[in-house]
Prior knowledge:
Keywords: ATP-binding, Kinase, Membrane, Nucleotide-binding, Serine/threonine-protein kinase, Signal, Transferase, Transmembrane, Transmembrane helix. GO terms for molecular function: ATP binding; protein serine/threonine kinase activity. This protein is α+β, with helices and mostly antiparallel strands. The chain folds into 4 domains: about 30-310, Methylamine Dehydrogenase, Chain H, CATH 2.130.10; about 315-395, no CATH class; about 430-495 and about 520-530, Phosphorylase Kinase, domain 1; about 535-770, Transferase(Phosphotransferase), domain 1 (Orthogonal Bundle). Helices cover about 30% and strands about 25% of the residues. Strands 27-31-32-30-29-28 form a 6-stranded mixed β-sheet, with helices on both faces. Strands 1-2-3-4 form a 4-stranded antiparallel β-sheet, with no helix packed on it. Helix 12 packs antiparallel against helix 14 (about 640-655), helix 15 (about 680-690) packs across helix 17 and helix 17 runs antiparallel to helix 18 (about 735-760). The N and C termini lie far apart (about 85 Å). The structure holds 2-acetamido-2-deoxy-beta-D-glucopyranose (9 copies). One 2-acetamido-2-deoxy-beta-D-glucopyranose binds near residues 66, 110 and 111. The site of one 2-acetamido-2-deoxy-beta-D-glucopyranose has 7 residues, from loops.
Amino acid sequence: MPPPPNSAYLFFLLTLLLCSFSAIASPFSTLAVSQLAPNITLVCALVPSDLLHRYDLNCTRASTGQQFLYRAGATPYGAVAAGNGFLCGLTLPSDKSNSTMRWWAFPDHGNETYEKRIYRGPALAALASGDTHVCGLKGGWPHCWRWKEIKFPPGIEFSDIAVGRNFVCGRKKSGGIGCYGSDMEVTNNVPDGNFSLLAAGTWHACAKSDAGRLTCWGSGAPVPDSDQPDIVSIALGENKTCVLRYNGTVLCWGKGSHPPESLAGEQFLRIQARGDAICGILLLNFSVVCWGNELFLQKHTVYKSVLPGTCSSPASSCVGCVVLPGSGNMCPSGEVICQSCQLDSNTTISLPPSQQIGSGRKRTVFVVLGSVGFILGLLVLLGFLVFRALRKRSNAGVHGSVRSNRRRQPLVMDSSLDGRLGGGTVEEFSLQFVLEITDNFSETHKIGSGSFGAVYRATLPDGREAAIKRANPASAAPFTSRRHEQLSRLDQEQRERAFCSELAVLSRINHKNLVRLLGFCRERGELVLVYEYMANGTLHDNLHRRPMVPSSPLSSWSTRLRLALDAARGIEYLHAYAVPPIIHRDIKSSNILLDEEWMAKVADFGLSLTNPEDEGSVAAGTVGYMDPEYYRLRRLTEKSDVYSFGIVLLELVTGYKAIHRSMEVEGEDGEAEGSTTPRNVVEMAVPYIETDEVARIMDRRVAPASSEEIEAVVYVGYVAAECVQAEGQDRPTMGEVVGALERVYAACSGATAARTESTAGRRVLSRAPSFM
Length: 772
Ligand SMILES: *[C@@H]1O[C@H](CO)[C@@H](O)[C@H](O)[C@H]1NC(C)=O
Ligand SMILES: *[C@@H]1O[C@H](CO)[C@@H](O)[C@H](O)[C@H]1NC(C)=O
Ligand SMILES: *[C@@H]1O[C@H](CO)[C@@H](O)[C@H](O)[C@H]1NC(C)=O
Ligand SMILES: *[C@@H]1O[C@H](CO)[C@@H](O)[C@H](O)[C@H]1NC(C)=O
Ligand SMILES: *[C@@H]1O[C@H](CO)[C@@H](O)[C@H](O)[C@H]1NC(C)=O
Ligand SMILES: *[C@@H]1O[C@H](CO)[C@@H](O)[C@H](O)[C@H]1NC(C)=O
Ligand SMILES: *[C@@H]1O[C@H](CO)[C@@H](O)[C@H](O)[C@H]1NC(C)=O
Ligand SMILES: *[C@@H]1O[C@H](CO)[C@@H](O)[C@H](O)[C@H]1NC(C)=O
Ligand SMILES: *[C@@H]1O[C@H](CO)[C@@H](O)[C@H](O)[C@H]1NC(C)=O
């Protein structure tokens, strides 16, 4: 029976449209399953974040319910993939900017997760993961990360990719399939013919032929007992095969793979499998439910609601597919989620066209009706989220009108401050008093000079040691050549401004990682600031003194990490907890001071700003530490401090100065003054970090590192590389940096402590604990 002409025409059009597309709307998934051990399953998905239109990556450990949250950066993750022990998040920017992919390892024990960026470049065409590896398509070229053994024939191009435990299969542009890797059962049994869908499990692969038949090969491949022409996607686990049909129902083969009674007949948007676990996103409410192993017997629902699919611009990818109703509200503006395309080019022929198109329509109607309630719900949620976002913004934002109503707060704080801070009272001293304790600013009291002026050491009557900074025109010049030009010639007005800024900032903050202001003196043109004395000087001097004093605490990695964490906490306080937030603008190792206990404190707030719009047209800061984006665009945000802090991290990891002269990385001395043109530590170190060769640039003046320490320092290298990203929006916040450093310090110092016990007597390590 030939189809009625109008359906035939419609069908022809659809076929035409679909010819260049594969059967699945998106080659990316927002749901991933990982198995750490036979009875430990992690289910990861993109879950609604506190912010509108944003989704964070969350993983739930099925046995315990324990959750891990991976906060999205500037560009949220659009797709996820996972294997047995790792998770990947990929950004899918809608503009032409580059995608990035991060990789996290779930260790088999504890809560630590190790993270690194493994890809940054043009958008990928597909992403797939197997039990141990993750692969994608760069354009049409297959590429696997952290899998050196896998080899593809030169010039091979795929339109789709699937990854098993020891093999990778791809659907060639021609429609045929190629499999590569060491699993001979799979690579030697690739079926001939043209296929429209492809999937891989642990030991087997399946594909849907153009004629609509499901074909599976490899070991333990469960064989479908009947023809299933209406398949829209396939998910394979270990000896389990599941398919998603046009009408959204799931059908599985293999022991224990059948959906339980309570889920039979449910409609799904997408399914994923790993090992013995099978999970899917329900069409009705976007809940994630799982089955297949006993962990899910009691409770199938893992997430109440997740981002049901990847967002994409409608024009480019929903051709011939149904737009998921309401998805415009979930995605960045102008984007939607395409549902699995229900009409697949060739299989449609094998079905009566009336049924085919009819069922498509019915589905659409069903989806629309079913979604009215959902959309209402979404609107309520949206309102709530807007409300929350606004509230959040008013708590954290630096820009815009919110600022005006926050400006009053410092005044309130200032007046209540003196009484509140025990021991933190800022006193006004008389010039007479200052002259007395410093012997008229005598040379014997002088301990250094900074951009602001000379620094003296003195003892207060109550016995406290103090550092006294004096703005003095005569003493300002010689030590400031490193600083930005504008600052090397501080005139009276600028000194005055720095003085006020420092006073304003320090009188209203109190944090153990920020240097404390004890008092000030402003009399007869003298501007004097009195601080707590920091017995061990600057981080810069300790780190770059050559040769390094053998007994220096900085010859231990765990101390270096702790100093980094101290300083990061101080800066995080300025950004996130000071009201209004403060941007330091001059973070550098010589502004990080060390007290007698070797605790690091951030100092020198002369350039700090609370209102980025207040600043003049000239960028301020120190060469070598200054955020290039800020320098170029004069747009100041907290991310400029993050950049500068990244430089400090690189100094700690490599032992190189921010700007240094050196011939080569492996040079014995690390630094050969005058040998070549000056180099930036970013240019020097970041390429090694990105190619996973941090060990080559680690400061060799530190005692040989244990494997835990190397792992920790490598990780700090990743954090540093993120901090010095060219664009501020790509950098982490200080809060994220602190979180990362806390984890890594805990891992490193835990290992150090353990090692100290077992190998007592080792020089550096046995000393380290006294600083913790
Ligand atoms: C998981 O399996 C291992 C060994 O197979 C066993 O030692 C462990 O207790 C199991 N854990 C749970 C939560 O069942
Ligand atoms: C995501 O994980 C965090 C814990 O890391 C948890 O507090 C939060 O509720 C989770 N979100 C969802 C939607 O499950
Ligand atoms: C893991 O985290 C949980 C709570 O989130 C905590 O109770 C447990 O002690 C942690 N385990 C380890 C090894 O840190
Ligand atoms: C994308 O990444 C490539 C390679 O890392 C880089 O050369 C290019 O400049 C990047 N493009 C954008 C727009 O960031
Ligand atoms: C597969 O498709 C190509 C065209 O894309 C065609 O030339 C070829 O004959 C097909 N092979 C089979 C076995 O159907
Ligand atoms: C899956 O099948 C393979 C090969 O038949 C077998 O070696 C393996 O033990 C099976 N795995 C499970 C979990 O049944
Ligand atoms: C889905 O389609 C299959 C046949 O393709 C049918 O057996 C099943 O009853 C349908 N389920 C629903 C809920 O429509
Ligand atoms: C989602 O829908 C399913 C049935 O369609 C139901 O069992 C489940 O409880 C729902 N989940 C939520 C969070 O409402
Ligand atoms: C669809 O099938 C026909 C034969 O039935 C074949 O000639 C054609 O190449 C197929 N189209 C695609 C896109 O594979």
